[in-house]
Amino acid sequence: MSSQVSAISAAPSDQALAHFERAFAFETDCWDVHDAFARGVQDFVLLDVRSHALYERGHVPGAISLPHGKITPGKMAAYPMDTLFVVYCAGPHCNGAHRGAVRLAGLGRPVKLMIGGLTGWVDEGFEVEEGAAVVG
What angle do CA 21, 109, 76 make, to 5 degrees? Predict the structure, then answer.
């Protein structure tokens, strides 16, 4: 008798290695974003793609408020084409970050998703900032 976990065999190690290594091209995590900010390394733009109202209630310090529906060619014109954007939303229970990533990728922009979102940030024990929206 097998569990639902083992009912389908795991991928061969070479395929698993390729899959998990590829994931880093698409995502980063809260710890890596926090570490970059703590070290003063600003080689990406962090976008909070939730509503401005949610941003004002609490956001990652240093994030710019730009709701995913407002990601347009006009808004992005302020950034060089090779600017790396990292997007986040509330957390794993919402798809706003994916929506933002789709919009950015559709505009030919480099983008990664901060997995965990604001929920992950708080779970790591990192500071949350409140206040007026910084609009990108």
Answer: 145
Q: Find the length of the chain.
A: 136
Active-site pick, 45, 63, 87, 89: 89
Contact in structure between 120 and 50 (CB atoms under 8 Å): no
Cβ burial, residue 58 (10 Å; 0-12/13-18/19+): middle
Q: Is 94 a catalytic residue?
A: no
pLDDT in tens, 49-60: 999 999 999 999
Q: Which burial class, exposed, middle or buried, applies to 107 when counting CB atoms under 10 A from its CB (0-12, 13-18, 19+)?
A: middle
The Cβ of residue 64 has, within 10 Å, a number of other Cβ atoms equal to 17
Q: Taking the CB of residue 40, how many other CB atoms lie within 10 A of it?
A: 6
Please check whether residue 111 is in contact with residue 71, taking contact to mean a CB–CB distance below 8 angstroms: no
User: In this model, does residue 17 exceed pLDDT 80?
Assistant: yes
